[in-house]
Amino acid sequence: MAQYQITVDQELLQQLFLGHSQDAGVSKLLESVLNQILQAQVTEQLGAERYERTDSRQGYRNGAYPHQLTTRVGTITLRVPRIRNGQFSTELFARYQRSEQALVLALMEMVINGVSTRKVSQITEELCGTHFSKSTVSELCKQLDPIVEAWNGRPLSDSPFPFVLVDALYLKVREDGRVRSRGVMVGIGVNTDGYREVLGLMTGDTESEADWREFFGWLKQRGLRGVDFITSDDHGGLVRAIRQHFQGVTWQRCQAHFIRNILDATPKVLKDEVYSRVRTLLDAPDLETARLLLSQTLEAYEEKAPRAMRILEAGFDDATAVLSLPERYRKRLRTTNSIERLNEEIRRRERVIRIFPNRQSVIRLLGALLMEQDEKWASGRKYLNMEEYWSWYKNNPKKQNASVTRIM
After folding, report:
1. How many domains does the chain have?
2. What's the first-to-final CA gap in the chain, in angstroms?
3. SS (H, E, C) 249-297
4. Is residue 135 domain-shared with residue 246, that is, in the same domain?
5. In a domain, 406, yes or no
6. Which of 76, 189, 197, 291 is geometrically suited to a Cys-Cys bond with 31, CB 3.0 to 4.6 A?
7. pLDDT for 111-166, tens place per residue?
């Protein structure tokens, strides 16, 4: 390791020991030491002191340029030497470059995990002695864009996805000088090995049929295939888009939303007993039993709660579609609870931000969050054991068509 002779003048020592701010003294000392090291290194590289005449000289100095470096004791200014017809090299900045990269990653992580950019700015000022504005933090986070975009647009053709769950939520986005409510559509798939994957997310003006058609078309362009069962709520545009893009696929109406719709139309004094009845028929072991319980429930409450019973009867077939599957798969596919839990995490961070500056920032933050969740799912336990499903699928006469080959 090279050794350098460093000098410290009396004025600097006085500021270090007698000055009002010890950090300021340390900062000046560090700045002086590092600048002397830079001068020693350029001398070593050129093989000659400043103005020295020697045949072994490797080049000539060409002034210096200022370079600010943020350290724990404040920001210091270094004068980095220039070499005529050459390039000055030093390892002095390598450690600080790694520290800067770590700081940027930490800033991104804080924002992704729901810390406001204002708070991040305050934290970095306390840690580094340098103020990072909200806009600076936002600009740093834009480095996530190519990573998130690559993940969100990745091919889905590596594996079929027999089970798909979709849902949407609304966020506030600033557009054209106004704050507008915009829909964010999210899809989750269960692959042939039984692991969950986030298929992708997309922002839309609302949650219209056109938006859902665009979302499903985008997923299919990326290679989504082998879909046999889709679970979602009863949004009209969503259901029509499913039927258009996934003809012949079984659609399961989310039972949690279905029960909520029924209870909203039920007189208050009857809510508990109606809930118990509906929950029992939805938990029936087979479709025949469910139909018998439906008949009994309609007979008991068609006069007491007519609106609720109309909703129950109209939505019964779609809400019990899951009964066609083997029993072990019903609990996790009868509702959109899996994707609703993701939405709760999104909401926790959205409450901090409140209003997104643009749609790209929505994709950036939510995409980074969903990427992290995707990695946890991939490295965790299987969501479903698919062996029984494949055995049932192959032996089900109604499934024996071209889609069997496509899925397998």
Report:
1. 3
2. 62
3. CEEEECHHHHHHHHHHCCCHHHHHHHHHHHHHHHCCCCHHHHHHHHHHH
4. no
5. no
6. 76
7. 655 566 666 666 555 555 555 566 666 666 677 788 889 999 999 999 999 999 99
Nearest of 334, 292, 367, 407 to residue 112 by alpha carbon: 367
CA-nearest of 116, 81, 166, 150 to 352 is 116
* 133 and 52 in a common domain: no
Q: Are residues 244 and 347 in the same domain?
A: yes
Q: Please indicate, yes or no, whether residues 32 and 180 belong to a single structural domain of this protein.
A: no
Same domain for 391 and 248: yes
Domain annotation covers residue 333: yes
Token digits for 297? Answer: 């429930």
Q: Which domain holds residue 318?
A: 158-401
CA–CA dist 124, 268 (Å, integer):
53
Same domain membership, residue 276 and residue 176? yes
Residue written as token pair 């139909």: 291
Q: How far, in Å, are 130, 220, 275, 308, 352 from residue 281 at the CA level?
A: 63, 35, 10, 15, 41
- In 3D, which of 55, 47, 367, 39 has the Cα closest to residue 202? 367
Of 315, 249, 323, give the one whose Cα is nearest residue 283: 323
**DSSP bridge partners of 67:** 78
For the stretch 329-342, pLDDT in tens is: 999 999 999 998 88
